[in-house]
Structure formats: C-alpha cells, structure tokens
Write a structure and sequence with these properties.
Layout: E1 8-14, H1 18-29, E2 34-37, H2 46-49, H3 70-75, H4 85-98, E3 105-106, E4 111-117, E5 122-127, E6 132-140, E7 163-165, E8 180-184, H5 188-200, E9 203-208, E10 214-216, H6 224-231, H7 234-242, H8 264-277, H9 293-310, H10 314-319, E11 332-334, H11 337-340, E12 346-350, E13 357-358, E14 362-365, E15 368-371, E16 374-377, H12 386-389, E17 392-394, H13 401-404, E18 423-425, H14 438-458, E19 464-466, H15 468-483, H16 514-524, E20 530-532
Parallel strand pairs: 1-2, 1-6, 2-3, 4-17, 6-18, 7-16, 8-9, 8-16, 9-12, 10-11
Antiparallel strand pairs: 4-5, 5-6, 13-14, 14-15, 19-20
Helix pairs in contact: 1-14
Bound molecules: NADP nicotinamide-adenine-dinucleotide phosphate.
Length: about 525
C-alpha cells in the first residue's frame, strides 16, 4: 500500500471516490504534489461500500461518468442504460489504473484530525495509522452519503443473527436462500434491494416508516448504436446536459407549462407516457411540480393510482401509498418494487406510529414480533455533514468544525468555510451536489478548486478564506431558494431530518446551472467573498 513518500504536500485529499480521484489527477496535471487518504481498501467511494443486491445508479451511464478526458470517455463501454454497482466500481478501478492514481493513495487509512497551523499557514493532517503530513491545501472529498445511519433500535444488541447495512455491505455478498429476512427502510436503497432479496429469501418482512414514491427505472441493455451515436458527439452531449436543471438529461422532454394549465385527460396521458418511459423524466412533465402543492398533488395522485393498480391486496396498496409531496424526499427508481408485494412470501409492517425494536430472534413493533434469521438496515446516511463532523478539523484560533456547524452547516458556495483557510469541500453543503448528476458537480468543483490553487500560486498568495459576510449571504440564499419550493415540507435527509438530534437545515442548494454561473462570476470579480493573503 503506498504510504506517503513525503511528509509535506501541496495538497492532501481525503477520500478516493469520484471526487478524490479527479482531484488527485487534476492536482498532478497542474504540477502540485498531492496525496490521498482513503479508509476503504480501494477507490470508488459510495460504489465501494454500497454493494447491496440491486444497487444501481439512477442517472444514465452515458452521463454518470467523467468527461474530463476525451479518450477515457470514448474507450469505456457501458453495458446498461443505468449501470449497476459492480460495473461502476469496475469503471472507477479502470480510471485509477489508467491515470496511475493508486501510487498516491494510502488505503485503509482514515484521517482522524486536520489542524490549521497559523504560524506556517499549513494543515497538519493525522491518520489512524499514525501518519502525520502537512499540506498547503486540504480538500475534503469525503462524499455526501458516506456515513451510514444506523438508528439505535431498542434491543439491537440482543438480536442473535447478522445485521447488514446497505451502505456497508459485506464484500463477499449475502446468501439469503432459505432465510427469513427483515428489511427496515424503504428509501432508494431499500426499494432497489427488496425485490431481489424477496426473490431469494424464504420470507421477507418489510418494516416501513414512510411510504415512498417510486417510478419504474425501465433499465435495459445499452444498445451499441445508441452508445456510438452519443460518443460521435460526446462533447456536445455533455455541454447540453450541463445546461439542464441538475446537470443531466438533455434528452428528457421538459414540460413547458404548469400542471394545472393542462386539462385532466391531457395530464393523465402525459404522466402515463412518462411512467412508461421510466426514470426521472416523470418529474419534468410540468414546470411547477415542486413549487405548487396543487400541481404536485396531480402527479402524486397518478402514482398512488398506479400503486393501487399494481398491488393486489388493497390494504397493502394503501400502506404503500405515500402522502407527502412527491419529490420532497428523493424520488426512487425501481425495478419491480410494487409488484414484489404481490408475492406470497412478503409482508409489509407499518411502523409509522410505533418504533421498531429488536429481540434475540427478530424484529418487533407495536406488540407484534416477527422472527427472522437476519436483518437488513436500509436506513440511509448521516448525509452531507456526517463524515466531515467525525473528523477533528480545527481551523484558525482552534475553531472546530463541530462548533462552527453547531446550528447546522454554513459555507460559502459549498466550497469553503470562514475560519478554515485553504480547506475546500467538494460537493459540500450549500452546493447543488445531491440535487445534480454528482459527477458533473464534482468535476465543476475540482476544476474550480484547482484553478483557485493555481491562481494563488501564480499571484504569490498563500491562503484563501471565505468571509463571514459572504457565508451569511450564501446561507440566506440557500434557505430562501429552498423556502420558495415544497422541499422543506417533509422529513427528508436533505434536511437532516432522518438522523435524531440533527439540526434541521436544508443542506443542498437548489439551482444548477445558475450555481455554476455564480462560481464563475466570483472568480471574474477577483474571488469576490474571499480574502487572499
Ligand atoms: P433514505 O432515503 O434515507 O431511506 C432510509 C429509509 O430508512 C427510510 O425509509 C426511512 O424512513 C427509514 N428509516 C430510517 N430510520 C428509521 C427508523 N429508526 N425506523 C424505521 N425506519 C427508519 O436512505 P437510502 O435509501 O439509503 O438512500 C439515501 C440516498 O442515497 C438516496 O436518496 C439517493 O440520493 C442515494 N441513493 C441512490 C441510489 C440510486 O442511484 N438509485 C440508490 C440508493 C441510494 P423515513 O422515510 O420515515 O425517514
């Protein structure tokens, strides 16, 4: 395993998912010395850890991939419209080989602390393996969904069988054949895993706290002609995607009117077409689905009717029917999720009113106990801030990130935090990140950070630090935009509402591509909102 060869670097990067890998490559390309620390034993980030059955991306493969290197994007062949986890991990590994990244990555090593030394304007970074290095720049490429959320269920220690978390799945896989399985959680991970687990297991019981909207993914093999056609003009395709809301989907038909401007039958046909096509295009039928409750109700009612049409038992169908705003929690894409509830070997238990607890032999709620052999927790993540707050990060005057963010995360552009000079977050809270095609956002952030480091070097500057005024204005902006929408209306992980005790703050910025324009404008105005020394 490559240990750091020096103890001083221009850049230390934490994490070797898609953000850390590109940050390393870009830093090297620009002549900076760089080193990465990664807690996993290989690259891939979220795709390294989330190996649960059915794990699959919900952004099409031809878009969920790097565009920084023309040859790379031409040579890699995707096999499916939406890639499964194994294929994405193979791609990450291919990128690491192709650019010889692993020689500058120390694996199986977690960064435990990062302390800013004011006397030298450098970061001292320490790891759980005892390494200590210093760097001018510290880039946190730690991912948005990288700390799994394991609720402390009463009696959890008593359960005698194995408990698996979808976000930390055993590498050797899990054989559910002949097993009685409990699954807790019906977000994107649960909805992808449940049909496959139920197909394999003797019996599966789903413990559902909140029913979720899901649209068929309609995944299919990626025809070579389709791939070749996109590759024949890849740059143009990428450029068109970057101009779309969320940085993806230039081939999605975007509705141009509000939902209530269409009459009922027209609306029904439009939703029906989009349901048949599958994917996130469903959300683009009308312009105002996340702005107007009435508009949202029309789409929500359509999905509820679909559920009622698919699920044979009316009580189960009713339990599976969500009532919150559609899209307020991330919309799920599935393959046969609702159909799975017609199997004879699956049960659905509503735990919305009564918490789940565990016993030696099973899972209980509201006095009903179900004996199982193993439990799958599809309970999500301490998103966007969880991983950063687990590291002892201390900036100017010993300010800790935990203190700085005690009332929720505060950043300027989701890139920097006042008090923490030369520390950058890739796809941090306050940036559009999880509301976009992550790889597009990552590349935009890495390019911005690398240009910024180069600007400092060329102008004989040592540090860059966001001002408190810029941060205040930015946080206000992020909140104002969110409050203009229906996003804050439900208990989503975007708000941190899934983790008990976490401050309720809407963390991502809604608005890509305007965000990119803002980042470019900040640079054009001489790094407006930052102080360079
Ligand atoms: P999630 O969306 O946060 O879902 C977690 C589930 O666990 C929810 O149903 C939640 O219920 C339930 N839960 C949490 N704590 C519980 C408790 N104490 N008792 C009972 N139920 C509990 O997590 P996720 O499914 O892992 O997905 C997270 C995000 O990862 C997604 O939104 C998406 O951005 C990303 N992801 C993407 C894909 C993809 O590309 N297709 C796949 C997987 C994940 P409540 O809703 O009531 O909180």
């Amino acid at each position: 395993m490559p240990e750091p060869t020096n103890n001083t670097y221009d850049v230390v990067i934490v994490g070797s998912g898609f953000a850390g890998m590109y940050m390393l490559h870009k830093s090297r390309q620009m002549g900076f010395t760089a080193h990465v620390f990664e807690r996993a034993s290989d690259v891939g980030g979220t795709w390294y850890w989330n190996r649960y059955p059915g794990a699959r991306c919900d952004v099409p493969s031809m878009e969920y991939s790097y565009q920084f290197d023309g040859d790379l994007q031409q040579e890699w062949e995707w096999t499916e419209k939406y890639s499964g986890q194994p294929e994405i991990l193979r791609y990450a590994s291919h990128v690491a080989d192709r650019f010889d990244l692993r020689r500058d990555i120390t694996f199986e090593t977690s960064v435990t602390s990062a302390v800013y030394q004011e006397s030298t304007d450098r970061w001292t970074v320490s790891t759980d393996e005892g390494a200590t290095v210093t760097a001018q720049f510290l880039v946190m490429a730690t991912g948005c969904l990288s700390s799994e959320n394991t609720p402390s269920f009463a009696g959890m220690d008593n359960f005698e069988g194995p408990i698996y978390h979808t976000g930390k799945w055993p590498h050797e896989g899990v054989d559910f054949t002949g097993k009685r399985v409990a699954v807790i959680g019906t977000g994107s991970s649960g909805i992808q895993a449940i049909p496959i687990i139920a197909d394999e297991a003797q019996h599966t019981t789903i413990f559902q706290r909140t029913a979720n909207y899901s649209i068929p993914a309609r995944n299919e093999p990626l025809e070579p002609e389709v791939q070749a056609e996109i590759k024949s003009n890849y740059a143009e395709f990428r450029a068109a995607n970057s101009l779309q809301n969320g940085g993806f989907g230039s081939r999605i038909r975007r509705g141009e009117i509000a939902a209530l401007e269409a009459d009922e039958e027209e609306r029904y046909l439009e939703f029906e077409r989009r349901w048949d096509e599958g994917g996130f295009g469903f959300l683009s039928a009308y312009t105002d689905h996340l702005l107007s409750q009435e508009s949202n109700d029309t789409a929500a009612e359509f999905v509820r009717r679909k559920i009622a049409g698919i699920v044979v038992d009316p009580n189960t169908a009713a339990l599976l029917s969500p009532t919150q705003v559609l899209g307020c929690k991330r919309l799920c894409l599935d393959t046969g999720y609702f159909e799975t509830f017609n199997r004879p070997n699956i049960d659905l238990v509503d735990v919305s009113e009564h918490p789940v607890s565990m016993t030696a032999s099973g899972v209980a709620s509201n006095g009903r106990e179900v004996d199982v052999d193993c439990i799958v927790l599809a309970t999500g993540f301490d998103a966007m801030t969880g991983t950063l707050l687990r590291i002892d990060i201390r900036g100017r005057d010993g300010l800790t990130i935990q203190d700085k963010w005690s009332a929720g995360p505060r950043t300027y552009l989701g890139l920097q935090i006042p008090g923490f000079p030369n520390l950058f977050t890739i796809s941090g809270p306050g940036s559009p990140s999880v509301l976009t095609n992550m790889i597009v956002s990552i590349e935009q952030h890495v390019d911005w950070i690398a240009d910024c480091m180069d600007h400092l070097r060329s102008n004989n500057r040592t540090t860059i630090e966001a001002t408190v005024e810029a941060e205040d204005e930015w946080v206000d902006h992020v909140n104002t935009v969110a409050d203009f929408t229906l996003f804050p209306s439900c208990n989503s992980w975007y708000l941190g509402a899934n983790v008990p005790g976490k401050t309720r703050v809407f963390m991502p910025l809604i608005g890509y591509p305007p965000y990119v324009e803002k980042c470019n404008e900040v640079v054009a105005n001489g790094y407006e909102g930052f102080v360079l020394t």
